[in-house]
Amino acid sequence: MSDFRRLFALTCRPQWPWLLATVLLATLAAGAATGLVATAGWLLTASAVTGAVLAAGGSARLEIFGPGALIRLFAVTRTVTRYGERLIGHESIFRLLSRLRPRVFAGLASQPWAVIGRLRRALVLNRLIGDVEALEGFPAGMLSAALAVLLAGGGFSLILAWLLPAPLAWTALALTLMLAGVPVLAGWCAQPREYRAALLRERLQRDLLERVAASRELVFADPTDHRRRALGRLDARLAAASMARASRAGAADAMAGLLLHLALCAAVVVVAGWLAAELLTPARAGLALLGLLALGGVTAGLADSWQGLARTRLGLRRLTADPELIPQDRGGCAHVTDPTDADAESASAADHVAHAAMPAAAGWCLDGVTLRQGVADRPVLDGLMLDIVPGEVLCITGHSGCGKSSLLSVLAGLRRPDRGQVLFDGREASDWPEATRLSRLAICEQRTTLLAGTLAENLTLGVPRADRDELQAALAAVGLAALIGELDTWLGPGGRQLSGGEARRVAVLRAALCPAGALLLDEPFRGLDDAACHALSGWLAERWRDRTVVIFDHQARGGWAGRRVLTLAEGRL
Amino acid sequence: MTGAPPPSAAPRRGDTPEQWLLSLVPRPALAGVIAWRAAETLGLLTLLVGLALALAAVVGLAAAAAPAWPVLLGIAVAGALLRALGLYCGERAGARLSSDLIIRLRERLLAQAVTPQWQLQQTADPAALTLRLTRELETLEPYYRRYLPALGVALLQPLLILVLVLPLDWLAGLVLLGTAPLIPLFMVLIGMGSARLAEEQQSRLARMGAMFLDRLRGLQTLRLFRRTNSAVQDISRAAEAWRHATMRVLRVAFLSSAVLEFFAAVAIATVAIYIGLALLGFFTLGPAPEMTLAAGLVILILAPEYFAPLRRLAQHYHDRAAALAAVPALRDMAPAPGGAPGDDRHARPAAIPARRPAQRWSAPPAVRLERVTLRWPGARRPVVQHLSLTLAQGEWVALTGPSGCGKSTLAAALLGWLPVETGQIWIDDQALDAFAPEALAANLGWLGQQPQLLNAALRTNLAPSGEADASAIAALVEHCGLAGVVAALPAGLDTRLGEDGAGLSGGEAQRVALARALHRAPRVLVLDEPTASLDADHERALLERLGALRGAATIIMLTHSETAAAAADRRIELPMLERRAP
Known about the structure:
The complex is a heterodimer.
Chain A: H1 2-12, H2 16-55, H3 65-109, H4 113-118, H5 121-163, H6 166-189, H7 191-213, H8 215-221, H9 226-276, H10 282-295, H11 302-306, H12 309-320, H13 339-354, E1 364-371, E2 381-388, E3 393-397, H14 404-411, E4 419-424, E5 427-428, H15 434-439, E6 441-444, E7 453-454, H16 455-459, H17 468-477, E8 490-491, H18 500-512, E9 518-522, H19 530-543, E10 548-553, E11 564-567
Parallel strand pairs in A: 3-10, 3-11, 6-9, 9-10
Antiparallel strand pairs in A: 1-2, 1-4, 4-5, 7-8
Helix pairs in contact in A: 1-5, 2-3, 2-5, 2-10, 3-5, 5-6, 5-7, 5-10, 5-12, 6-9, 7-9, 7-12, 9-10
Chain B: H1 17-23, H2 27-59, H3 69-113, H4 116-121, H5 126-138, H6 140-168, H7 170-179, H8 182-217, H9 219-224, H10 228-280, H11 293-315, H12 317-333, E1 367-374, E2 384-391, E3 396-400, H13 407-414, E4 422-427, E5 430-431, H14 437-443, E6 444-447, H15 458-462, H16 470-479, H17 483-488, H18 506-518, E7 524-528, H19 536-548, E8 554-558, H20 562-567, E9 570-573
Helix pairs in contact in B: 1-12, 2-3, 2-6, 2-11, 3-5, 3-6, 5-12, 6-7, 6-11, 6-12, 7-10, 8-10, 8-12, 10-11
């Protein structure tokens, strides 16, 4: 049950006015639909009885304008409330959604560095969207639909209790509970199977993505397409699961309808007895029976949506699991209110002020640093000793997998060594708040990651207020003169694709433009020819004169006067 | 269902989206769904008529010549049972129809999506393609499972009700008949607007999905640059834009059902009041004086059901709009019709047959480029122009040149992924484009700049074809300098590598990819910067390994590395084309 408490807290509480409006409108719509037919049933039966009396020459009076007006009122109410219910219901879904997604991202963004690294990225999107959508569907699609049936049926039962003998009202209440309960119960019982199907669907997505992404390699490496046949089998299993789901929903629908109809037939028998005993007028019998029949029509789609219960709970559990991806919502603010990020904002404002005066060069002192990697048996860094003097240019070389990237993480304070001490600017690296520490550093990772956005946005990631002349000059200096006119060109999907060498230089520029105290570059010249490499290192030397630069590469490339070259091997320098 | 000839012509590009969607439906299966839905309708009408007559009889105003009310109730119960059965079986049949169709279509689209030739023409990245194969493809499911059956019922049920009502009271029948034609008219008018809006929404959705994925991909980078806050705002803005776009669609889309609701409610109210007045004898026009309670109740009880199918159809109308909006992207992915022989689009999905591997060539071929001009899809200027060169059988050639001189483009052309604009590539005197794709797949090998490892065991990553036995894999591991890696992994060759080869360094991942490229002993090997992330030792080891292939494979190596270029038999410098027109 704690699942449901969290579900309410997460999806219902933030937009309870919207949700309340949805439930009210849905109840009104269901009530008006029921009322329309019930009133018409009353009017017809009463008219027939009165008409028969009149035809027999008797005298009778029937007020028909009141019921006629009521019928028209119900007709208009049904139209308006249904339109309103659907609009407001969807509005509340989208409000919830545009609130949840940034929160989920913010929660993810404030996870420890190692957690971000472990998250399998393409999967995160699919899963996250799926999880968030499952949550978003709960308040409007499942909860308020079931509540509306209950409330409308309950209201109708009350009216019956007022007009008719009690047993009929109890029957109406029982039927209402059944109409709402069968779909919910069917959803509840289907949870284990739906849970498995949801996981199966994720596996299919994961394998599909991988198959598409690796297709160029697999054309030759797997010409008989083993992997795709496995995918076909997975898809067939998934199809079987969704068949089973449709069967369950259909069975729940059919069952609820059948029970209602059988109950109605039974009610006719009972009503016949009461009519004979004159416990009931014919008109009220018509009202009750037609009203109950109409009530059955308002449950359409309930069974189908409640089959998603397991998916909703799966999404909820994952999003609120440890590490908690949804942070506490503070004061309705959709974005991160993490103090480190607030620091970051002020830090980057400070950067701007400090821009004219170059920031002081940063330095490190490493003493006996040992770092173990997940898969490797021997430590990647093994009692490493290193002093980096502020303002020096250091080139750390070594073969692939020797721990260069790990050393960079340690220097940046993103990984804490298993043993040993890392002093950054004279203070233990991990003691610095992350935002302050990172504001002193400009880092270019080994993997080139450009963001979907314009070239200018990408270049100014670290210096949001850099001026365009500076960007153009930098582009020209590193041999990217062709891109000078394309600062506002969109990069990434649907935009310009840069070549490997261009993207690499953009990534290096992006880091090097930051007004930081030290520049850490992981294989900055990857994929560049010697000319491009020289142009880039020449520009870097000029730009980063008197500040600390640490380059990690296989060999010392690009001429750079006065640099120190160290080789990392066996975890030591 | 199996083996039935496709009842419709192969879909043409000129078809409307709706025609394309319909051309995918196996007619017998659709007929089955409609039959169950018809049974449901018949059951429902039997139930309602039985109930109405029984109620009239119970009240004491039975229709003339009607059976006693217990018999009527018995008929109603039978109707209820038939309806429940029809509903359940109809749902099942609909679900089977749609899931069979989706699975079949996904298989076809995937076959296209994994074709490198096709991928090169696309700007969509693999994640976007995967979204298309899952989320967008699945928007078709409600169209087949809900919309089409609802359409069938919407045509059938009102007609049956009219047939029942008209003989009872033609005036009431006329009221129902009169309101019905207006409904499709309004729905078409409003539906046209919402279909256009939904298309816009689809592209927004795609952009938003891409934004979310992109910011997640760049999360580490964003964190390093202390910009996660602005990324949260980017996502927030994208979500808000999505909300506005979608609500704009829905405000219009829901209008169509509101119009329907309005006409339905007015018609029911009118019929009810008319019957009431007729029964009281206040209304004496036309058939009104003959109105009985039994007839009136039957008409009243059927009137909501006259409109109910139309309402359900309207509710599924956005299923249709979403499916139609997804069609262009999906249709672009669908291979041209009439491609593969025996492509039975309507057969029930079966296991994908294993593709027969083509013959391996007996010797490495000579490769000759004859005045080849290459242009990247969508680019204005060619990257390679009038390039001619010849590689002898089994020769190892290094192609060098500055960044951006078209090395990767040339690799794509050599692998048959990018057609030459002019000129010709010859493999042993047969034009490259004259080879069957299977023959190329079986004899060529490729290693790119950024290896894509599989989320599978290291063993599977080394030999995804499953063709290499244990000793062959051991030899590969040894040759590609992976022995240390295997030893370091907790379960050795059986260790599962995560997505992005989590756990391995860039250089290690590259060596795994090299081993994969070599495990089927290709006759032509195209290497794009194979040593870019390797240190000198591993580079030397790799070059030795390539040297050992001398005579067994013709090797084209595109590289920057001086060491690598020097190790090859021959080195050719590619000219740099001026990128910008003067």
